[in-house]
Amino acid sequence: MMEQSGELRPCPFCGSGALCDFPDAYTTWQIMCDNNNCPVDLWVWGFSSREAAIAAWNTRADDGLREALQMTERPEKVKA
Description:
It is a single chain. By secondary structure, the chain is an alpha+beta fold. The protein has one domain (3-71). Helices cover 22% and strands 20% of the residues. It has helices spanning 50-58, 63-71; strands at residues 3-4, 18-21, 29-33, 43-47. Strand 2 and strand 3 (29-33) form a beta hairpin.
C-alpha cells in the first residue's frame, strides 16, 4: 500500500518526493525518498501510525533555527 502524499516534505538531500508505505511484511509505517538515484538512501520506519511517520519525515534539523531567526529582532544600523 504505497502512496504519495502532498503533506510530505520533499527529500532533504535530492528534493524528490516521498512515499508513505505500510508493507505487508512489516507492522509499522515507513516513509522513503521516491528517487532511486538519491545520493542518500533515506527512509524513516518503525512508526505505529501514519501521522507519526509523516511528522518524523517532515522534521528538519534547521526548523527550530528558522523559527528563532524569524522571531529575533535585528539591530538597527549604526550611522558612522
